[in-house]
Amino acid sequence: MKLAFIPSTFLPWVGGAEIQSHNTANKMVELGESVDIFLLDKVQINNKKYNIRVLNKTLINFVFLLKYYFGIDFSILLKFYFKKICEKYKYDAWHFHSVNFKTLLYIKILKNLNQKIFITFQGADIQKDQEIKYGYRFDKKYEKLLKKTILLVDGIFAISENIIQELIFFSYPKSKIFKIPNSIEIKKIKNTLKKTNQNKKLKIITVARFYEKKKGLDLIEKIAKIFLDNNFDFEWTLAGRNSEFLLKSSFISKNRNFFNLQKEINNDDEIYFPHSKLISLYKQHDVYVNLARIESFGITIIEAIASGLPVVSFNTKGANEIVINNQNGFLINQYNPFEIANYLMYKFNTLSKIDISKDKKIMNYDLEINTKLTIKAYKTKDV
After folding, report:
1. What is the spatial distance between Cα 250 and Cα 95, in angstroms, rounded to a whole number?
2. Which residue spans of the chain are classified as CATH 3.40.50.2000?
3. Which of 121, 138, 278, 372 is 20 to 30 A from residue 348's alpha carbon, by CA?
4. Cα separation of 16 and 214, whole Å?
5. Both ends of the chain: CA-CA distance in Å?
6. 234-239 β-sheet, strand order
7. DSSP string spanning 258-278?
8. Smallest Cα–Cα separation from 208: which of 300, 128, 122?
9. How many CB atoms lie within 10 A of CB 186?
């Protein structure tokens, strides 16, 4: 098959959506398919098997600005532009990996050109959380365009059950929804040895960019205070973009010896994310702690489980579809720092005795298996 991928954002910016686009494209090429990724800017990606094609950024931005700010529709210009692309490359399917206002404009045009279109929503593009004001849909212009556009799409890949619930809100046909979660290259992670912690201190790891409210990083200080008040020995690693922002807390700065702040571990020399350096970092710890208030999926959770770590998390969207109590982790029902701190101090020992590496359900998130399912969905005739 000849496939066109359109991510809303892409590498070198590292996030779950960007990594999924890259990993899936590489795996599809490995499985014999042809993949072109269309971007607005030229980027140098050393570890790709797919092709990168650069769109006419000036034209697209011109049409976008007129439509978004003035309500003037010049999409006819994009129709002529995309018609040439379609005639030249003759793609079997276009796959949008996350969407934004700009990329939504492409969809109606491509449908008018009789193209087959799929979307994978990755969270902010479809979720709407009132508590922390998370999601593009708080932009009424975006939400209005999404409502108009979504029903034109031939199929949608839902990475989690909570994405399916959002699709139901838009009255999208269930028959066109394919539940395929975000995935990782399991064998790559399994092939890295886990280091045994000989210390009595609990070694905690959280992998997240510094998005304080969404990722729940504001709770780290509160949980750590409870640990120290109870003379509980621990070391907490936060790995990710802008992790050093945690030091803005005077408490954490004062107790710096309990924290290990790691910069974002990028990947420009290995075909699949996560990089082996990040896998090794996971495997130096005892437990993965997820504090996020909302996730569409939670890719770092499955990376941690594949690395043999139990996951302790609040019972929030994203985590609650992956973590199974006393099997690969534990869910804390009340979003409260005391609850999770008490569990880690007094109950984690029981969970730590379970061999997480034997959890066969992790294969539900295997990249090769799910890429094959995605290819099968592209070929479905009645969508």
Report:
1. 46
2. 2-183+366-378, 186-364
3. 278
4. 14
5. 17
6. 259-262, 234-239, 202-207, 287-290, 311-314, 329-332
7. GEEEE-----SSSSSSSPHHH
8. 300
9. 19
354 Rama sector, left if φ>0, alpha if ψ -120 to 50, beta otherwise? beta
pLDDT per position as a tens digit, 326-370: 999 999 999 999 999 999 999 998 888 888 888 889 999 999 999
Q: What is the pTM of this model?
A: 0.94
Structure tokens at 120: 């994978």
Q: What is the pLDDT of residues 28-64, one digit of tens each?
A: 999 999 999 999 999 999 999 999 999 999 999 999 9
Topology given in CATH for the domain delimited by 2-183+366-378: Rossmann fold (3.40.50)
Question: What is the per-residue burial (b if ≥16 Cβ within 10 Å, else e) of 155-182?
Answer: bbbbbbebbeebbeeeebeeebbbebbb
Q: Which fold has domain 186-364?
A: Rossmann fold (3.40.50)
Which phi-psi region, left, alpha or beta, contains residue 317 (left: φ > 0; alpha: ψ -120 to 50)?
beta
Residue type, 298: G
